[in-house]
Amino acid sequence: MKFRRSERLIDMTHYLLERPRQLIPLTFFSERYQAAKSSISEDLSILKETLEHRGIGTLMTVPGAAGGVKYFPSIKKEDAEQHVKELCERIADPERLLPGGYLYMTDILGDPQMMRKVGKLLGSAFHDKEIDVVMTVATKGIPIAYATANYLNVPVVIVRRDSKVTEGSTVSINYVSGSSKRIQTMVLSKRSLREHSNVLIVDDFMKAGGTVNGMKSLLEEFNASVAGIGVLVESEKVEEERLVDDYVSLVRLTDVDVKEKRISVTEGNYFSKPISFL
Predict the structure, then answer these.
(1) What is the distance between the alpha carbons of residues 130 and 256, in angstroms, rounded to a whole number?
(2) How far is residue 170's CA from residue 162's CA, in Å, rounded to a whole number?
(3) Alpha-carbon distance 104 to 101, whole Å?
(4) CA distances from 39 to 4, 5, 29, 165 (A)
(5) Distance CA 29, CA 12 (A)
(6) H or E element: which one contains 256?
(7) Full DSSP string of 157-219
(8) Which of 60, 63, 101, 109 is the most buried (most CB within 10 A)?
(9) Would you say 245 and 234 are in contact if contact means Cβ atoms under 8 Å apart?
(10) Which phi and psi angles does 13 have, rounded to 5°?
């Protein structure tokens, strides 16, 4: 079946967006659309310009016989600023205050549109890193991990507090919580992570960083490397020294006043990091 250019562009765009960071040979598109490689190259030039103009991402062409094209999700700075502003406004809503000064976050974590924005923000921050898997700890970090992994086109690995029979043999460590100073346990199935993997750690909330630091220690048992750390919200007020230094945060929680029912937030350190915006 012969495709018109308009049909090729639509189908090619969909195919690339479904497979971020995956190398697609030009011969694949040429055979798929029964078109010359020169025509495919022209189509890709149109797509690259449009994707970058719309703030969706960019295309990178890999030359050579084994080359092709890769789609890298990215974001415009003004779009990123708008997403972070929306997050701050939603988190600052005093109605989400719970007894004890805790914040109700399930509505945000369960919002597919918001999670797509969070995934794109974090995915864009680490799109140029060599990442094999995204890791988080059950349970609230799971939506963030899957949203981020979707933009990086990598699997998700979930660390648990206790072992499950369905996980098979596991590796467990004890770690000290940064805020409560309690000894806690982390468990990860041996089958879920290959040795020497490059891992992006994500989490929903970070105080002193004890949980993230625990995941870093767990990775050492697999001879794996930390490719980056991303968190949705970080707390500004930390009584003890923060255990994690190099991380990306979207929102910073500066104060919670239960008596006045006030939640004070600002943007995290996202825009102070060397992120390549479109």
Answers:
(1) 37
(2) 10
(3) 10
(4) 11, 9, 10, 54
(5) 8
(6) strand 248-257
(7) EEEBSS--GGG-SEEEEEEE-TTT--EEEEEEEGGGS-TT-EEEEEEEEESSSHHHHHHHHHH
(8) 109
(9) no
(10) -60, -50
pTM over 0.85: yes
Q: Which two tokens stand for residue 243?
A: 């255990």
Q: Are 168 and 155 in contact (CB under 8 A)?
A: no
Q: List, for residues 49-62, the tens digit of each pLDDT value.
A: 999 999 999 999 98
How many residues does the structure list for the chain?
Answer: 278
Instruction: Give the type of residue at 229.
Output: I
Task: Decide if 63 contacts 79 (C-beta within 8 A).
Answer: no
- Domain boundaries 77-272, corresponding CATH code: 3.40.50.2020
The ranges assigned to domains in the chain are 5-73, 77-272
- pLDDT tens column, 106-153: 999 999 999 999 999 999 999 989 999 999 999 899 999 999 999 999
d(CA 212, CA 88): 22
The upper half-sphere exposure of residue 12, i.e. CA atoms within 13 Å in the direction of its Cβ, equals: 34
- The C-alpha atoms of residue 147 and residue 99 are separated, in whole angstroms, by 29
DSSP assigned state of 99:
G
User: 262-267 and 248-257 as β-strands: parallel, antiparallel, unpaired?
Assistant: antiparallel
Q: Which two tokens stand for residue 265?
A: 């937030």
Phi/psi of residue 82, each to 5°? -65, -40
Domain spanning 5-73: CATH 3.30.420.10: no
Q: Tell me: cis bond preceding 166? Omega within 30 of 0 counts.
A: no
Burial class from Cβ neighbours inside 10 Å (0-12, 13-18, 19+) for residue 65 reads exposed
